[in-house]
Amino acid sequence: MAVVIAFCNLKGGSGKTTLAVNVAAALHRAGQRILLVDGDTQGSATAWAARAAERGKDGPPCIAVAAAALRRDLPRLAEGYDVAIVDGPARLGAETRAAMLVADLVVVPMAPGALDLWAAAETVRVLEDARGLRPELRARALLNRADRTALSRLAGTAIAELGIEPLDVSVGARVAFGEAMLAGQGVCEYAPSSDAALEVRRLTKALLAAMTDEKGEKAA
């Protein structure tokens, strides 16, 4: 079965869909067999894939799967793929846990701001619940929509206190992300020399590194 990376946060607006789409598109562009899985009832990843198809853009296949059905259906659906990227649901703890339980790696994106960090703490509690069933489940926190303000620095400190290992990369609030989504592309294709594309490439590399052990084998 494919390696499964799930982007999860109980709070809407954390940027998980944008990140999931762009990581999937970057890996697809690099020649890997990628399946993008839309587990969010808002259907934003599916809408992006439809936009890409309308405009004749090359991108990873995208399927919508109800979060409650992911554990049952994803092993079959992901056959023949290298990586499955799951855009997890927002707000519903039980459904978010279901998305986590199919993953090899859970990524919790967090934007600077008190409300976002409080919601992230709730997401981490759901993660610990999932780890009660799958102790081997790996997870990383990601500072998203970061800037150079003191708030972002404080957010980085708060993330470290949540008890989930942070990635050593962050992603900024870039206009190029929104433009690329509207164009039905990943930012690495839409604006390959942009700061946004550089951040996505760094993020993708960090996620793949998090999925391997010291010998370069797939993480347990």
Topology:
Elements lengths: L2 E5 L8 H14 L4 E5 L5 H11 L7 E3 L5 H8 L5 E5 L5 H9 L3 E6 L3 H20 L4 E9 L3 H11 L5 E7 L2 H9 L3 H4 L4 H16 L10
Helix pairs in contact: 1-9, 4-5
List the keywords:
220 residues, alpha/beta, Rossmann fold, globular, disordered C terminus
Number of strands: 7
User: What is the fold-level CATH name, i.e. the topology?
Assistant: Rossmann fold
Strand content: 15-25%
Q: Whole-Å distance between the termini? A: 13 Å
**What's the pLDDT, averaged over the residues?**
88
Helix content: 40-55%
CATH superfamily, by name, is P-loop containing nucleotide triphosphate hydrolases
- What general form does the structure show? globular
The total number of structural domains is 1
Total helices: the number is 9
Backbone structural class: alpha/beta
CATH architecture: 3-Layer(aba) Sandwich
Order of helices and strands: EHEHEHEHEHEHEHHH
The largest sheet, given as strand count, sense and whether it forms a barrel, is: 7 strands, parallel
Spans where pLDDT lies below 50 across 5 or more residues: 214-220
- Order the strands across the largest sheet as they lie in space: 3-2-4-1-5-6-7
CATH class: Alpha Beta
Kindly provide the radius of gyration, computed on alpha-carbon positions and rounded to a whole number of angstroms. 16 Å
